[in-house]
Predict the structure.
Amino acid sequence: MRYAMVIDTKKCVGCSDCVVACQNENRVPIGYCRDWVIENAKGTFPNVSIELRSERCNHCENSPCVRCCPTGASHYEEGGVVKVTRHECIGCGACVQSCPYDARYSHPDGFVDKCTFCHHRLQEGKLPSCVSVCPTECMYFGDLDDKESKVYQLLQNRDWKVLAPEVGTKPHVYYLI
Amino acid sequence: MNEEIILSGRMNPKIDPTLGIWGWEIPLYLFLGGLAAGILFFAALYTILGREKELPTAVRKATFIVPAILVIGLFALFLDLKNKLYFWQLYTTIRLESPMSWGAWVLMLVTPLSIVWSVAYWRDLVPNWKFKVEWLEFVEKQVNKYRKPLAWMMIVSSVILGIYTGILLSAFNARPLWNTSILGPLFLVSGLSTGAAVIMWMSKNHLERTWFSKIDLILIGIEIFFIIHLFMGFLASNAAQIEAAQLFLGGVYTLPFWGGVVVLGLLVPAILEILELRGKKVPVALPAFLILLGGMIFRFIMVDAGQLSKYLY
């Protein structure tokens, strides 16, 4: 099983519902966030384009954060979800430095925190909270090893990209373009 | 035009607008760790070579300050932790892939080694000292008996300590400025050079002082070569690393780096040392202080600038 998130940048309107849903679901402290929305404007008038992206931890297959962690607090869960065991984290900051996406932050309670793909919801058979609230349904979540899954089908039939593939992290959040 | 803005959400403290998760603690430690590695390296080297008599400062006197340097460095590392009371979890696992884990374990080896090494020379400072506690006398006897094997252990662990301060940074492929394999050797050589500077400064013996002046000159030469190599590597690399190098080639760190580190911390002390070797009177404290200052600025700049450099996507 390889969990993946597929986000359709053509359907996203940048409403930030995913951000708020995550903050609520995961009790993210005020002033912090685990996901965020980027607006990327390109070109000169009249040839301009805008891309909206909801970004978060990419749950990389070759995660630098798991590699750098000195205590083993950062680890892979089943399905390739990258998680931090809070009581093993000493807050040294190595994983924060190692993440090319700056997806991690230092929680005020003294550990490093980030997106978990809502692992607790996955175990109950639910979708991650950001995916479940998206009003334009531009976010998809599923198993890449399952050829019937929506995520697999989308990646077969649409053009897509991942962020900073040159860093060699093999991200598991895909953007349809 | 290509403009990217965070539309909503992310303003995480110490991550945005620029990364600053590591403040003064890590660069201070990198400096002190390199300095300790430098002093221990020379002490071990000249013990192995059997030149204790000629170079007493390097082998004996300078090592007295190493435990203090390491303790201050360790305390800085401790302050950097966000969950300080859990620091011991570093010692419940060995993770070969993580430079931080290597560092924690090497410090666990080097710190006690440096303490027994210098404590066994305690009688140099207080000639008629009696330890009063029996097992301390025993330790002292054993250390003096097995000085050579200890020196071999110390030379290996000090090289690992010195090189790891660079590898800690170079293992982060997310930060293009750090992600270069030359950083390990560069930090090692810089650490050895600061160690030689301290020995030079503490030595009262003219021959020893000029010997370490010569060593320091060679190390400065190697350092300058590595720095040129570093920037050659950046400019021949990908866009992210070219951009990272621009921080030093016209960007905000240009003056602190070329002025503070290269000129003030390397070239000026090198010139002063050459003058001294030619017989001119130069106060030894001056080149030694400049080398130490340059080494410290170098680490602060590398840590700060590295956190500004990133992949563009």
About this structure: Residues 213 and 273 of chain B are 6 Å apart (CA to CA).
